[in-house]
Design goal:
- By secondary structure, the chain is of the alpha/beta class.
- It has two domains: 191 residues, Medium-chain alcohol dehydrogenases, catalytic domain (Quinone Oxidoreductase, Chain A, domain 1); 126 residues, 3-Layer(aba) Sandwich (Rossmann fold), CATH 3.40.50.720.
- It is 27% helix and 24% strand.
- It has ten helices and 15 strands.
- Strands 3, 4, 5, 6, 7, 14 and 15 form a seven-stranded mixed β-sheet that branches.
- Helix 3 packs across helix 4 and helix 6 runs parallel beside helix 7.
- The longest helix has 14 residues.
- The two termini are 13 Å apart.
């Protein structure tokens, strides 16, 4: 079978499409024929050697994918041959609060990833995906969608007419917008692109601001008719966090998810204290959360936003496209 292999730190340009041995179906395992994958910014960090130490080398990259169960050497339980399933980012985090043992194993990081024609897994590591989604759309769910869901509804405080702030137009931010609107929340967003802001408004965005022409957008939001937000989905990191704090109300909350805008800026924590803001790191979610999220996606018929789809043979181009940072929504690979 064909698999992509990368040596962490060598960069995406040195990722190789290689002939590898098809996995042997061990007792207790299922064999999946992979159908589609979805890229995350983490995949670039892994390839560039910026994501932890001691990762397997060579490594099959990518954590997010959907496959079809084609063979079983165990009881299938709720699953069946021919069913499409997604794999959990954290295969050992079934339910409950996050702990170090539950997150020790992560696909495409501490363990081998999914960018391969076939993979084996246990029934406990997979979830059924909404059937109205395409393979590519379903592949976007395990990391970006679940992270947004966890931030808003599992860790976040729920109450009517909540006001949400999102940053940019990547997968997590767009899913946060879609989930928030399905719950009846109001959403304000900032983006470097006016075109992307217009696209977000087509998805239900209530208010948007161009961060290039509004560098102090935190004050702009706070003083606007929209007003201070209750909950911010922070994907920028230290560079955007000071403005996010300004936009967040006293007693509000910030879900800290990414460092897309860089992490070199100095950060003063005093405003968090003075506004009594809850700052919570969010790291994907459990399999139980994944199943709850999928029920909500089914109920509200939420369609993931896919920017571009690349063929399996052209996976390098998908990584290079993500590195440019101009995409709107998710970047997928299909076989």
């Amino acid at each position: 079978m064909k698999s992509y292999l990368v040596k962490p730190g060598s960069g995406i340009e040195n990722m190789q499409l290689s002939e590898t041995e098809k996995p042997t179906l061990q007792p207790g395992k299922l064999l999946l024929k992979m159908l589609a994958w979805s890229l995350n910014y983490r995949d670039l960090l892994v390839a560039g050697g910026q994501y932890g130490l001691g990762l397997p080398s060579p490594l099959i990259p990518m954590s997010d994918g959907v496959g079809e169960i084609i063979e079983s050497n165990t009881k299938l339980g709720e699953f069946k041959i021919g069913q499409r399933v997604a794999l959990s980012f954290f295969p050992d985090w079934n339910d409950g609060l996050i702990t170090a043992p539950k997150t020790k194993k992560s696909l495409g990081g501490t363990t081998q990833g999914l960018l391969s024609e076939f993979i084996t897994c246990s029934p406990s590591e997979i979830v059924s995906v909404p059937q109205f989604l395409s393979n590519e759309e379903a592949a976007t769910l395990p990391c970006a969608a679940l992270t947004a869901w966890n931030a808003l509804f599992e860790m976040g405080t729920s109450f009517p007419e909540k006001k949400i702030l999102t940053i940019g137009s990547g997968g997590v931010s767009i899913f946060a917008l879609q989930f928030a609107k399905s719950a009846g929340y109001k959403v304000v967003a900032i983006s470097r692109s006016l075109q992307h802001l217009n696209q977000l408004k087509e998805l239900g965005l209530d208010e948007g601001y161009d961060s290039v022409n509004n560098p102090k957008w935190g004050d702009t939001i706070r003083k606007s008719a929209f007003g201070e937000v209750d909950h911010a989905i922070e994907v920028g990191g230290a560079s955007t966090l000071p403005q996010t704090i300004k936009a967040t109300r006293v007693g509000g909350e910030i879900s800290l998810i990414g460092v897309l805008a860089g992490n070199e800026a100095e950060f003063n924590p005093l405003p968090i204290i003075m506004k009594s803001i809850k700052l919570q790191g969010v790291f994907v979610g459990s399999i139980a959360m994944f199943n709850r999220m999928n029920l909500a996606i089914e109920e509200n018929k939420i369609k993931p936003v896919v920017d571009n789809v690349f063929k399996f043979e052209n996976a390098h181009s998908a990584f290079a496209y993500m590195a440019k940072g101009n995409h709107f929504g998710k970047i997928c690979i299909s076989i």
